[in-house]
């Protein structure tokens, strides 16, 4: 770019730019040197041409300058004119300043002569302005009482306190203290302070017990509709999700509210407006506040407790913005928590925390007592429980008949009828120490649990509010003197109140917790019918522990504070005379008549009362303690250690469990020692598998089963004590087993069948027998068919090899056999029940049993008792099976050492066979109702096998037999087969196969010798060589038997 490019050259003279571009830049240098150009021209050969060129360039430059001057001519003229104007104005200003200096000098001279008069006028104007301001303030203060009353009526307590504090500061200003017209205002403000305090206290008291407009739950414990708040619950209770102490930490972190938000906040609010007129709320502001209040009411009743975050609560709509209101607006706490925080803030601003705490402490126990009574009445109405319903419930049986504790009278179990109307059940004798209503799962237990759940849930929600208030008060008390706010003038009476009481009037988190648990404990004692003497030891121990935990450094505060015994002593709080007079005037000092002495009326709700209801009370108390523990701050977490749960556990351990053991031990003893306990009774001719349909379980064992179920029901209700209760059941089962063992031994003692099943060889063979698969306890692993057949044959040989069986060696009394059958089935029933109950035993008991392995004597578990019961039931069945086999051998041994030389066809079986078959039929009919079909097959199924073996073996001892004798024996087998066929569930094919073998064997005697040899040659495996040899040894009239018969038989069998 050239140095002349920016010149204002017209468009029609663009050639000038080209000419300028040809000029050497050395001509426009900052320091121009002409000598080189002069020398160049002088030394040039063509001087004229060079000079002409310079002149042309000079003309171009002059022309360009003319164009520039022409272009900037107007600007130059205007600049010159402006400069001239500036010079003119500057000259005029100089002249005026000189005149002003002259005038000021003259004014100074004139004012100096009247200085004193001007000062007097100025002072008078200032005084008049101050008087006008005072009159405006007096006019505003005169309207304060009516404004406060309106705010109180609208429940704008925080705004009312702000107005009160500001007006109090106004009245203490210089100039207003001597105004006589304001004395009435001061008096009205003093009265309004008391009224405002009690209004706030009333509202706080209502919200503490969930009766307020912003309570977390709608009150359901008051009978009158006008006492039920219409406000929808704003926020769900957080009693189980997180500790309640977090709610106060939210405000503590916002704007340093936890440090300065209460006591200094009110002072700061008043001092910021100290220099302005008090009447800051004009009519327009009032209209706006009224609209806000209306909106707030709409929100309160229509949004279903879902206030938007950062929205100002309705009760602060008329309040002046300050640090506390900003903290509340930003807080995420539920609405009822914010309201409680606001009320506590109001009390702190008033300096009335100690008085409020004292009143709350004084009214706590009567109020809780009234709430519990109201809750019981409401529960009674909802459940519609009446005395007639209770008496009717006492007459209905649940699982068996019971008798009341201390009574020895036995009740009969009502007979259950099936749908077809036929009675299938038998009356049982049960001796439970509790009535059906009090049994585990009974109506009284369910009613007690429902009632206590409802009451404790209400108590938890009340304590939730107390934790919020108590933690806030403790926080403020630890930071400031909350009873002497700086914003209030000194008041001798109220300062005396602050000095005479503790910082919070004795109200701490521990106090409501102790009183609430005490009232609940009294209710539980009423439900359990526990007299004060029964719990006096527990109460004394707990009171002593509480006394040890009390701080010792300030004896005066402890003397003036709470004096309370956990169990029965009412709460008392020491307050000043002035505060006490105020309380009495407001009616707070009156205690509820006989609130702690009278009962709660739980008997009207519960069908029955007694210490056994502790089982249904334990779990609600445990859940209540867990919820309370989750609410408490960490520093107060130890308060629940000596509370309601400890009392309940001590009561169960020291009173209920010993009583339960004694009562149930008596019941067990009565059940197993009565004459009818082991008396088989059946109301049907066939076996039924369920008790409801008439399964004839022995009454003693059925009663034991019911008692065991009841005790384990208590264990399930109280898992912590399940180990002790399971031990009780084990003790009862062991005692019952011994009684059953005694009954078993009375039936089988000194009998051959009992001795035989005790032999190891016979026990092993019976375990291998296929029929043993149906026994209650499996006697071994599965066996093959060949092993089963071989064991059966070997057993028969063992029984037949016994010495001659005498009648005294057998159980001749059919009743004993029926008892064994019934005892076997009853033992199996109890074993199955024990096994099911053992699986339902609480984990705590199982762990305790597992830990006891390290002890010297480890207790047995329920499964071992079930195995013992099943083993005894199996022994009963084994005795019955062996007894019937021995009975068969006893009758058939008459076939030996006799001659079967009959002279006519057999029409009737032998007498011993008739006796045997009649005995089989009689015993089968007697046992049929008591054992199942497969057990009947086991008991009677071994008869045919042993009868066949005995009949075949008897031939070896016969002296002679003829054709009619063979027919007689065949007739005997037919009679026996008919008797066995009459028994259901017995394997008919096996019976027929065994007896056909006997008939075939004896019919071989009718064959000639040669034909017999031919048969043996073809069927050498049908009978043993000994049995074939006996066919040839016996004397058969009319059969020719060669002398070498045995040799020829041996040759045939050897091939």
H/I helix tally:
40
| Overall form | elongated
Terminal CA distance reads 144 Å
Number of strands: 4
- What percent of residues adopt helix (DSSP H or I)? 55-70%
Largest sheet: 2 strands, antiparallel
Task: Give the overall average pLDDT.
Answer: 74
What structural class is derived from the secondary structure elements?
mainly alpha
The low-confidence runs, each spanning 5 or more residues with pLDDT under 50, are 218-309, 387-429, 485-501, 534-597, 848-859
- The portion of residues forming beta strands comes to under 5%
**Rg estimate, integer Å:** 57 Å
Spatial sequence of strands, sheet with the most strands = 1-2
Keywords: Exocytosis, Protein transport, Transport
InterPro entries: Sec8/EXOC4, Sec8_exocyst_N
Protein name: Exocyst complex component Sec8
Region (Disordered): 255-303
